[in-house]
Structures are given as structure tokens and as C-alpha cells.
Inverse folding.
């Protein structure tokens, strides 16, 4: 009875090639080794311009067509009643993303959109420009300074399908990504570079955020840095750092030496320069009178 030997079950899957079933296509059955055994093994093959899910098998495709045909017939027969529920008005600045039997469809709108009952799940996506602000956070600069920096960011959605499929909470994810990119980017700069090249750093920061949010169907249009107080002066700075005046019209577009010169004359330390210039001018005038 106990003479039969037992063999241990293999800890891994068999190396023999597996064949796809009726409901899964052969191309989508092969998985990358890095994603095996995870909960996101099935990823719809949806690109920016092609919203057709090519991973659907032929049997599943036939079943979907039969169900869609039956629901469409029932909707057409009872149209005077179902018309109040299946017809949606979509303005020009919105799109509707439809999941039909759980599979993504191309975005619909603007105009009158037909949504089939029972088998369609839909969501409105606003394409207008939105804005949010990053509260001031303390950033340690490259020269050892500690500066309080925030940002005002404007963004818009250019791909409504990817914004719904790729990320669950778009606003929270974008805010967190922008805050991390802000901290990481400014940590490589000095205090003087942050204060004098604020516009240029905002453009570079927008490009960095766009690289990370492009798979979400989102595009950042503008990033404006807001400088706060200098918490800690840079290491080895004897004369102190240069602080930009908070509200000076036309100063934001200046960069380099011109911006530093303008801020020098607008800073309290540079207020004595005009008086010294007037004294020099008066001395020169007296000298000219003596010569004449």
C-alpha cells in the first residue's frame, strides 16, 4: 500500500509550448517573462491612433457581435422610450470614452452620441486646459542652500482614451509627478541659478513632466515657478544670495546678465547707486564749468 513512491509537483510551469484557447488570440497569448504571474498580464493593445483591441480571439469576437446585434435590435424597437437614455449630447470641448462589453472603443463626440444600454460603460473627458498649483516645498540646492519653491502648472488632455485607461486618478497622479520632478530638477541647480533663470527652468521642468505623463495622454502647457523665502543660505556665500523682487512687470522674460543687473538696481542694496551716480554727474558738471 505504501510501497508506491510519490513525485514532487514541479515548482514552475511546464516548459512545453501552450496553445491559446477559443477566447484569446494567439498573438496576445505570449507574455513577457517580466510580467508573468502578475495581475496586469493582460494589457490591451491600444495605440494613439488605433483603438482596436487586437488581442480578442475569434470566438469572443463572434459572441460580442451577437450580443451587440441583439441589444441594438431591442434598442431600436423600444426607441421612443430608450431614446431618452441612450442618446447623449457631447459639447465640442468634451469626448466620451466607451467600454463596450469591457473592451475599449474609439472616443465619441462632439455631437449626438449613441450609448447602448446594459453593455456600454461610458465616461466623459474634458479637453479644456486645467491648472493646479504645487504648494511651496523646501528644496535643497546643489550649493547647500535651502529654498522654498512652488509652481503653477497648466495642462490639458490630448488623448482621452489613454487618460482613462492608463491612470486611475489623473489629477492626483499628475500633481505627485510634477512635485517629484520639481524637487529632482531643482536639486541640481544653485540658488542663484534658480532665482535668475526661473523662466528657463520652468520650460525645462515642463519638458521633463511631459516625458513622464505622455503615456497618460496628458500634455503640460505651462510651468511657472513661484519662489518663496530663502530658508538657508548657500554654503560659502559671504555676501548673501540675490533675491528677486516679487512683482516686477517685464522682469520675468529677462535672463542672464541683464536680469542680474536689473535685479541689482531694484534690490535694496542697489538703491544707493543712483545717488552715487547723481553725485558723479554733479562733479562732472562743476568740472565742465571750470574748464569753460
Amino acid at each position: 500500500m505504501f510501497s508506491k513512491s510519490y513525485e514532487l509537483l514541479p515548482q514552475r510551469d511546464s516548459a512545453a509550448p501552450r496553445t491559446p484557447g477559443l477566447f484569446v488570440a494567439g498573438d496576445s497569448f505570449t507574455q513577457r517573462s517580466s510580467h508573468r504571474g502578475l495581475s496586469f498580464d493582460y494589457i490591451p493593445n491600444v495605440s494613439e491612433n488605433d483603438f482596436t483591441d487586437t488581442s480578442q480571439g475569434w470566438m469572443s469576437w463572434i459572441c460580442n457581435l451577437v450580443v451587440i446585434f441583439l441589444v441594438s435590435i431591442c434598442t431600436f424597437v423600444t426607441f421612443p422610450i430608450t431614446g431618452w437614455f441612450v442618446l447623449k449630447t457631447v459639447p465640442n470641448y468634451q469626448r466620451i470614452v466607451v467600454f463596450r462589453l469591457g473592451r475599449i472603443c474609439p472616443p465619441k463626440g462632439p455631437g449626438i452620441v449613441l450609448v447602448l444600454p446594459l453593455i456600454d460603460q461610458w465616461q466623459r473627458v474634458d479637453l479644456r486646459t486645467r491648472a493646479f498649483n504645487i504648494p511651496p516645498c523646501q528644496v535643497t540646492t546643489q550649493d547647500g542652500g535651502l529654498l522654498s519653491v512652488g509652481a503653477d502648472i497648466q495642462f490639458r488632455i490630448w488623448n482621452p482614451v489613454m487618460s482613462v485607461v492608463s491612470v486611475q486618478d489623473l489629477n492626483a497622479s499628475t500633481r505627485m509627478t510634477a512635485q517629484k520632478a520639481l524637487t529632482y530638477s531643482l536639486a541640481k541647480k544653485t540658488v542663484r541659478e534658480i532665482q535668475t533663470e526661473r523662466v528657463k527652468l520652468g520650460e525645462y521642468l515642463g519638458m521633463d513632466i511631459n516625458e513622464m505623463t505622455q503615456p497618460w495622454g496628458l500634455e503640460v502647457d505651462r510651468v511657472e515657478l513661484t519662489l518663496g523665502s530663502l530658508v538657508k543660505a548657500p554654503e560659502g556665500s559671504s555676501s548673501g544670495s540675490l533675491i528677486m523682487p516679487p512683482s516686477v512687470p517685464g522682469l520675468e522674460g529677462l535672463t542672464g546678465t541683464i536680469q542680474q543687473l536689473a535685479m541689482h538696481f531694484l534690490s535694496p542694496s542697489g538703491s544707493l547707486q543712483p545717488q552715487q551716480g547723481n553725485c558723479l554727474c554733479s562733479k562732472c558738471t562743476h568740472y565742465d564749468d571750470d574748464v569753460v
Summary: The beta strands are 87-90, 94-100, 103-104, 111-114, 120-126, 130-140, 146-157, 218-232.
